[in-house]
Design a protein that fits this description.
The complex is a heterodimer of chains A (about 120) and B (about 110). Chain A is mainly beta. Helices cover about 0% and strands about 55% of the residues of chain A. Chain A has strands spanning about 5, 10-15, 20-25, 30-35, 45-50, 55, 65-70, 75-80, 85-95, 105, 110-115. In chain A, strands 2, 4, 5, 6, 9, 10 and 11 form a seven-stranded mixed beta sheet that branches. In chain A, strand 5 and strand 6 form a beta hairpin. The radius of gyration of chain A is 13 Å and the shape is globular. Chain A starts with a strand and ends with a strand. With about 110 residues, chain B is mainly β. In chain B, strand 3 (about 30-40) and strand 4 form a beta hairpin. Classes of the chains: A mainly beta (about 120), B mainly beta (about 110). Chains A and B meet through strand 5, strand 9 and strand 10 of A and strand 3, strand 4 and strand 8 of B.
């Protein structure tokens, strides 16, 4: 089983709809992240959370919101989806307490298409 | 954080060693060199990281020059499954939130 699990893996939604992407991890890490990747481009950080009570905006947070329901769960919401939010979304985790505190572990990704 | 420069693409024959270079001439003393790879549309995968000394794990070796201005990732016996985009990233400890992926090097392993 994957250490970082994302659901759904694929979703097609209509413009204006609310969509939630969920992420859960079994690694016991304190930090969680949401990234988006557009075709042929690098990853852009949307939001990150250092613990349950700490949420921080990344490079491209506009149009997105997040919720850290528990240490192991971090969800990403698009309140009113628009076509340019069509992308591949990745959840990730890291553990600052470890020597490799910068090592980030990624989920398998969620393809979101907004039509 | 220091910027990195990588060649856009490289080819390697299966079974041969793949040597992927990275320049990071502005690296600071407290910045680590990290390598990740992304196989088509999968989540990026951590490979290895180092500060000053050369490092080796089950996946690869990392050779860092003495002045730390460049490094080389070595895949000792490349296979077709190693075909991916490889990213060299420089970061200080505790700044994982600043991890950014540029364009990397697209490694094509061929028969």
């Amino acid at each position: 089983d994957a250490d970082v699990t994302q659901t759904p893996r694929n979703r097609i939604t209509k413009t204006g709809k609310r969509i939630m992407l969920e992420c859960s991890q079994t690694k016991g890490h304190d930090r969680m992240y949401w990234y988006r990747q557009d075709p042929g481009l690098g990853l852009q950080l949307i939001y990150y959370s250092f613990d349950v009570k700490d949420i921080n905006k990344g490079e491209i947070s506009d149009g997105y919101s997040v919720s850290r329901q528990a240490q192991a769960k971090f969800s990403l919401s698009l309140e009113s989806a628009i076509p340019n939010q069509t992308a591949l979304y990745f959840c990730a985790t890291s553990d600052l307490r470890r020597r490799s505190g910068n090592t980030i572990y990624f989920g398998e990704g969620s393809w979101l298409t907004v039509v | 954080d220091a910027k990195t420069t990588q060649p856009p693409s490289m080819d390697c024959a299966e079974g041969r060693a793949a040597n992927l270079p990275c320049n990071h001439s502005t690296i600071s003393g407290n910045e680590y060199v990290y390598w990740y790879r992304q196989i088509h549309s999968q989540g990026p995968q951590y490979i290895i990281h180092g500060l000053k000394n050369n490092e080796t794990n089950e996946m690869a070796s990392l050779i860092i020059t003495e002045d730390r201005k460049s490094s080389t990732l070595i895949l000792p016996h490349a296979t077709l499954r190693d075909t991916a985009v490889y990213y060299c990233i420089v970061l200080r400890t505790g700044t994982a939130s600043k991890l950014t992926f540029g364009t990397g090097t697209r490694l094509q392993v061929t028969l």
